[in-house]
Amino acid sequence: MLRFEEILSRIPDADLIHYSAEKLSAMCGCSLRHFRRMFRKQYNTSVRTRQTELRLEKARRLLEETDDKITSIAQAVGYRHMGFFNMMFKKRFGFTPSECRRRGAANGQSGRVAASRVMT
Question: CB within 8 A of 61, min separation 6: which ones?
Answer without folding.
Answer: none
